[in-house]
């Protein structure tokens, strides 16, 4: 079993609760709106990280981040983009089993035409009265199991 931790929209706030929830991940995805680059450095202390640039990631350091990323984890093709509405400009590859996005701050798990669409919600500053969340994917030889993790915050 391979565990992929998925986080988005930290906006410069990496909560201790998020770090705790991501422990044990074999790989971490950050779906954009990161904040300063030390967020990614702190996540790399847990596991390898793949990140894409969000609409607020405009500083010079973020220019090295892609708008979209394709990666294979445990034989599963994952595609990540910050804003799902940009899939028309950056379509996922035909072999993508999972499409990860952020931006809306709303956690979402849905399946369309055999593809899992996953938005981990926002783990950063609370906005729009939405809960702080992130996601996990458990990937095995025959199954992809998504989970939304609600972060306990005061």
Summarize the topology:
Elements: E1 2-7, H1 16-22, E2 27-30, H2 38-44, E3 49-51, E4 68-73, E5 76-81, E6 98-100, E7 108-112, E8 115-119, E9 133-140, E10 143-150
Parallel strand pairs: 1-2, 2-3, 5-6, 6-8
Antiparallel strand pairs: 1-9, 4-5, 7-8, 9-10
What keywords describe this structure?
5-stranded mixed β-sheet, mainly beta, 2 helices, 154 residues, Purple Acid Phosphatase, chain A, domain 2
Describe this structure in words.
The protein is mostly beta strands and 154 residues long. It has a single domain (2-150), classed as 4-Layer Sandwich (Purple Acid Phosphatase, chain A, domain 2). The chain is built from 2 helices and 10 strands, in the order E-H-E-H-E-E-E-E-E-E-E-E. It has helices spanning 16-22, 38-44; strands spanning 2-7, 27-30, 49-51, 68-73, 76-81, 98-100, 108-112, 115-119, 133-140, 143-150. A 5-stranded mixed sheet has the order 3-2-1-9-10, covered by helices on one side. It has a 5-stranded mixed sheet with strand order 4-5-6-8-7, with no helix packed on it. Strand 7 and strand 8 form a beta hairpin. It is globular and about 35 Å long. The chain starts with a strand and ends with a strand.
């Amino acid at each position: 079993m391979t565990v992929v931790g998925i986080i988005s929209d930290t906006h410069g706030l990496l909560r201790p609760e998020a770090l705790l929830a991501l422990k044990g991940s074999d790989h971490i995805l950050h779906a954009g709106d990161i904040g300063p680059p030390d967020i990614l450095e702190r996540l790399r202390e847990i596991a390898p990280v793949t990140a894409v640039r969000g609409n607020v990631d405009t500083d010079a350091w973020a220019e090295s981040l892609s708008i979209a990323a394709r990666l294979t984890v445990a034989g599963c093709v994952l595609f990540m983009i910050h804003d799902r509405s940009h899939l028309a400009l950056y379509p996922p590859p035909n072999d993508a089993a999972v499409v990860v996005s952020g931006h809306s701050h709303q956690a979402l798990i849905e399946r369309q035409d055999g593809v899992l669409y996953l938005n981990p919600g926002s783990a950063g500053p609370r906005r729009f009265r939405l809960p702080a969340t992130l996601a996990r994917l458990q990937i095995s030889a025959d199954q992809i199991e998504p989970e939304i993790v609600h972060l306990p915050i005061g």
